[in-house]
């Protein structure tokens, strides 16, 4: 349950700083997570980024103040982090479909987002198939990209699938870890993500290499069409498996493994590999 308590601490921190500025590092420290793992966990569980959550909450509170106070629009804009009325109005209209003045005059409905509460449901009806395995350090080769959060990952897969890179990588896969990997690594600027394969030997031209450290891994079976099946399994890991298991996340390198099954079918087989302790 440690991760749950940490995540709730971070949400409380965000809620208490909606009218002040704070960095992602400060937010992560409030939870005990690294910045990378906090942002990744938050996005996996909620489907939105931390910044999007904060933006929605600030614009919700701003709309409520417009309805119940006589404060100037510019003062409310500044209070919630917008330096100009134009920037505030643009963001406000994107969320609410109305201008601040229309809301003040009660000329339409606002779209409100309320504080997030983490709830864990322990279920037993739907099984989770996984195995524990110990793995020595191994090399992954592929394309390595630094990105601020998870949002850019689908576009990277689209690009490398389109130009044939994933096919070339699959042919180079020469270890017992069979499949194309999506590897997440902590990084000071957010996260690094590599699309690659486990490979023994000199790094082929055009690719980069990383070393995945020795670890004990929880390897979860994922059955179903992408991306729904993968996201559903991630959520079950955090909501069901972690709270009821004896393990904690090691917060190092983690990856998803994709086989050559058709990703659009209900029988597609994939895996999630999580380092644990």
Descriptive overview:
- This protein is an alpha+beta fold and 277 residues long.
- Strands 1-6-8-7-3-4-2-5 form an eight-stranded antiparallel β-sheet.
- It contains ten helices and eight strands.
- It folds into two domains: 103 residues, Homeodomain-like (Arc Repressor Mutant, subunit A); 147 residues, Regulatory factor, effector binding domain (Multidrug-efflux Transporter 1 Regulator Bmrr, Chain A).
- The mean pLDDT is 90.
Features:
8-stranded antiparallel beta sheet; elongated; DNA-binding; sequence-specific DNA binding; Multidrug-efflux Transporter 1 Regulator Bmrr, Chain A; 10 helices; 277 residues; alpha+beta; 2 domains; Arc Repressor Mutant, subunit A; MarA-like; transcription
List the topology elements:
Blueprint: H1 2-16, H2 24-31, H3 35-46, H4 50-68, H5 73-79, H6 85-96, H7 100-104, E1 130-135, E2 138-147, H8 153-162, H9 165-172, E3 180-187, E4 190-198, E5 208-212, E6 215-223, H10 228-244, E7 254-258, E8 269-276
Helix pairs in contact: 1-2, 2-3
Strand order of the largest sheet: 1-6-8-7-3-4-2-5
In total, the number of strands is 8
Low-confidence stretches: none
Largest β sheet strand count, sense and barrel closure: 8 strands, antiparallel
What is this structure, in a nutshell?
This protein has 277 residues and is of the alpha+beta class. It is 41% helix and 22% strand.
């Amino acid at each position: 349950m440690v991760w749950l308590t940490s995540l709730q601490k971070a949400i409380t921190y965000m809620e208490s700083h909606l009218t002040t500025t704070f960095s992602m590092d400060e937010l992560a420290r409030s939870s005990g997570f690294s910045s990378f793992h906090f942002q990744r966990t938050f996005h996996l569980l909620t489907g939105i980024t931390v910044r999007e959550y904060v933006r929605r909450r600030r614009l919700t509170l701003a709309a409520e103040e417009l309805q119940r106070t006589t404060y100037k629009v510019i003062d409310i804009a500044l209070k919630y982090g917008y330096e100009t009325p134009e920037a505030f109005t643009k963001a406000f209209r994107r969320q609410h479909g109305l201008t601040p003045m229309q809301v003040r005059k009660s000329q339409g409905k606002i779209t409100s987002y309320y504080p997030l509460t983490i709830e864990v449901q322990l279920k037993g009806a739907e099984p989770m198939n996984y195995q524990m395995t110990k793995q020595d350090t191994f090399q992954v080769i592929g394309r390595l990209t630094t990105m601020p959060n998870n949002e850019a990952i689908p576009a990277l897969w689209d690009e490398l699938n389109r130009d044939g890179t994933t096919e070339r990588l699959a042919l180079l896969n020469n270890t017992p870890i069979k499949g194309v990997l999506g590897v997440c690594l902590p990084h000071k600027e957010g996260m690094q993500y590599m699309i690659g394969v486990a490979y023994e030997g000199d790094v082929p031209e055009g690719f980069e290499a990383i070393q995945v450290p020795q670890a004990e891994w929880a390897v979860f079976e994922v059955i179903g069409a992408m991306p729904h099946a993968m996201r559903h399994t991630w959520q079950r890991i955090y909501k069901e498996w972690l709270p009821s298991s004896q393990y904690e996340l090691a917060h190092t390198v983690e990856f998803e493994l994709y086989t050559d099954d058709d990703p659009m079918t209900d029988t597609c087989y994939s895996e999630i590999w999580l380092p644990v302790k």
